[in-house]
Amino acid sequence: MKSRVPPRCNGMTRILALGSAFLFLMWAAACEREGFESLELPPLDPQVVQDQDDMTWDDYQPIPDINWADPSLKPERGFRLAVVAIDFPDQPFVITMPEGSDPFGNPQIDPIDRKGVAQFYADFFMTPSEINNGQTINGYWMEQSRGKFGITEVEVFGPYRMPKPLWAYGLNEWGQHEYTPDGSRADGRMEPDCDSIWAEDVGMDVQELRQRYDGILRIYAGYDETGVWQEFGEMKFATKDDIPPEWGNPNPDMPRWVPTRYVEWTSWLAGAQQWGLSSMRQGENSGTITHEIAHLAFRLPDLNNNPYVEPYRRVAAGTWDMMDRGCFNGPGGPHVRWVVPPTHGAAMPAGLMLKNRLEIDFLSEDDVLTVNREGLAQSGLVVAKVTARAVEPVPGSFAGIVVRLDGDDPQDRTPHEDPVINPLSSGVPIYNAYSVEVVQRIGYDSFTPDDGVLLAKFRDALRGSNAGPNAFNSYIWVIDANPGDMNMVDFVRPPADTVMRTIADYRQLNNALFHAGLNSGSAYEWQDPYNSLHFYVIDLERDSRGIRTYTLGVRSLDGSGPQARDVALTGPGEGSVSRANTPFTFTLTNTGTGTATDPALHPQGATAFLNSDIYRLSVSVEGEGWSAQIQNALAAVEFGQSESVPVYVSRESGATPTATIVVTATSESDPSKTAVATLQVS
């Protein structure tokens, strides 16, 4: 995001992140000495979107006070994992080859002996080390569950040599069956052969052996096609006719390309790899094993769309949830998911969104403030604090807010919009509630693209199509604070054909978060007129650890409750301006009266959070050459309480000797209740 601060003051965004009023005044004074008479206020919560392609391991920020990857931490619920390593007559383990020697440019480290492959990958995924940058599958699940769930036992087996070449298993999907070198039809999955060899080795029945483990990670030599089909297909070759022999079918009479999942073709060598599946059949480049465990352990379904086929359909949750393309989060972005071992691309999946954490009991009802849409119309608006999802909520705050779409069917009253006409449409209105949560780039969320407030709709059932062409399961639907095409380059097809990200690309939601205050680059409020709801991002605070907590509000458009709404505003009366952005403090008071409401209006004890009003603030100036600014257009104040409203005043050369600053505060619950205060400046 381009800074709005004059060039010599570009450090302001970083200074604001420290939340220090003292540093703010030092900055203003420094700018005054440099001759600036009027400066635009920097945002209190700037949107700073970092693209996945630009991320490195330096972007990782640890969770304060605890390392969830520490093997000494024991979860409440364990998961027993078997790691079985298999290779093929035509494909050795990539990790056993000299560094950078295979056609894909791997491995990235010195080779290891074949006998140690199973243990290497078990350690890579489970034991913090320099190679995995201290990040493990167990660490992910311990962080998401706050110690409720983790990988407690790992046994390694193999390596075993499979009876067929890799292509005999890898060409069994996406219309690839007839592209074998020998004219046979590739139909078989590799799991039956793998498990038979494994069972024979340990002297057990296959079914009995499978039942001993909660999950079986079959690490096979080679690659997941999901991580190479594009990079070593359309990104490497201009057309399928440009594929050279070394990337084509070993049989020179066969095409050098094969069909693949999302587009018409990829190189034969890339397509001959097996696509990873929730059976945890994973190639050596796979970073999505954490995602597959979610399928096995919790039956969470996929959320992902097809971003490559028209008519385009917008992604559901994108980078913000591991069950969508957030499983691709990690250094370097999605186009480096071919790296072996998998330290880039999908190495650091996003956290789970509020709906999923509630679904699998990582959060309890007490962790979340839940209110009803119809109840808000009778009880008045709700204001509550929500802490970043990567940590425990700070005292007095929640892990999120849920607004149930109660009332008569259809619960979601959004009109259906044909996705063929509007690719941003959510399709059939199937949702039952809204969720509001906070994302901060720490822990496994370090590789999400922004910090801020995440608003989404969700349905109670985990499965259900959004209907129409290219339909997919979208039980969560993120509300995009900045909808539309971000106009970002996806890749450059040789020799120099720039390919833009489609409107359905998951990275189109990189700027989806809401932010507090004015001029952030994003929005601080959102209305759903069809479901009669207004959401507010009111303010942001950070504790001594830097953890973000937002003050959030939700109001019904159909009623404001029984409370008597009113407002008072007082100012300092008069003052002198001696430098750019001289601060003056106004006092905003909620002079309304609280009224008891029926506790049954909402699913749980929401009474304590119905005691505020939200006020919209504005400032104007009467006087030539003067300016006045505020950083935040919203304030939430409890009944009978007051809040300070800072106003920053500047004057230009040649300005009139005096001016009048006018500040207005208006109740969101009752816009007829308005207060005005003035300040005379000279």
Can you offer a commentary on this structure?
13% of the residues lie in helices and 24% in strands. With 682 residues, it is of the alpha+beta class. The chain folds into three domains: 192 residues, no CATH class; 202 residues, no CATH class; 122 residues, Immunoglobulin-like (Sandwich), CATH 2.60.40. A five-stranded mixed β-sheet has the order 7-9-10-11-12. The N terminus is likely disordered.
Q: What's the main sheet like?
A: 5 strands, mixed
What is the number of independent domains? 3
Strand residue percentage: 15-25%
Poorly predicted ranges (pLDDT <50, ≥5 residues)?
1-27, 29-36
Mean pLDDT: 93
Tell how many strands the DSSP assignment holds. 26
Q: Which strand order do you get reading across the main beta sheet?
A: 7-9-10-11-12
Structural class by helix and strand composition: alpha+beta
Instruction: Specify the helix fraction band.
Output: 10-25%
Radius of gyration: 28 Å
Structure annotation, total helices: 11
* Amino-to-carboxy terminus distance: 36 Å
Shape: elongated
Descriptive keywords:
five-stranded mixed beta sheet, 682 residues, Immunoglobulin-like, single chain, 3 domains, alpha+beta, 11 helices
Could you give the topology of this structure?
Layout: H1 12-17, H2 21-33, E1 77-87, H3 117-126, H4 137-145, E2 149-161, H5 166-170, H6 190-202, H7 206-211, E3 215-220, E4 257-258, E5 266-267, H8 268-271, E6 281-283, H9 289-298, H10 354-359, E7 368-372, H11 373-379, E8 382-387, E9 400-404, E10 433-439, E11 452-458, E12 476-478, E13 489-493, E14 497-500, E15 525-528, E16 533-542, E17 548-556, E18 568-570, E19 573-575, E20 582-589, E21 612-622, E22 626-629, E23 634-638, E24 642-651, E25 659-667, E26 674-681
Parallel strand pairs: 1-2, 1-3, 3-6, 7-9, 19-26
Antiparallel strand pairs: 4-5, 8-17, 9-10, 10-11, 11-12, 13-14, 15-16, 16-17, 18-20, 20-24, 21-23, 21-25, 22-24, 25-26
